[in-house]
Give the backbone structure.
Amino acid sequence: MTEFNIIEKYFNIKQNKRPDVVLGIGDDAAILECPPGQQLLLTTDTLVENTHFFSYTDPYTIGYRSLAVNLSDLAAMGATPAWALLSLVLSEFNDDWLTNFSAGFFNLLKQYQMNLIGGNLAKGPLSITVQVAGFVSKHQALVRHGAKVGDYIFVTGKIGEAHAELINHQSFLTITPRIKEGIALRTIAHSCIDISDGLLADLTHILEASHVGAHIQLEKIPVSAELSWEAAITGGEDYELCFTVPENKINLINFDCTCIGRIEAKSGLRIFNHEKLISIEKQGWQHFC
Ligand SMILES: [Mg+2]
């Protein structure tokens, strides 16, 4: 199969064309219309075989996940997803793999009424790069640097589920990007981040960007039952949201989440276990360590 045939068969499938896509797949570049009064948010992420998934991970999950991790970043900014680009490096042509990968990718794409608007295909060690674009009304995007002293710190979902799966050598849990929650937080949260490197590491990103500190209460964090607290909050790949909200807006939160601590003026992150200050060595996942 040629590059052109592969794109045509597996990726130029019929989509409900968005009105803001003037020209999608098939030319040298896509032509897009940005809605007036909205700001464009862009992000990209790469999944590499044996770093982000195993050779035996089912291709449907890889396709779904390659888009989901990007959507999680849009969720953290409060964006409404719109478009995606996909760059695929394949070691070989495999009809079964491509059919299932494409099914996983387009399944999630459709859930958010997004369009795939282009991409690239090359031969080499298996890796998948996805870029996504979304919109937020001017000045409503959620950022890491907005946390204020006195804000309450919240997390969505359970922390450590992905890490527990990895320990058990099972396939990855399907991520549900917290798009709905991110959009709901636009006018409520002072700061937000998605948890990809582990709760401790990502909350620390908020604290450093906002020039504040915090305390959290370990016993309040909703963790996966199979894991130690330490493993859960440093494990990473949760793709839940961690965000801070001022006291007078807490009653506006209209989805399930858990308050785990509070922003303070003193820099650094203090972790309490039933009122006893504890220290945790490992901070979180990083490449090149
Ligand atoms: Mg992120």
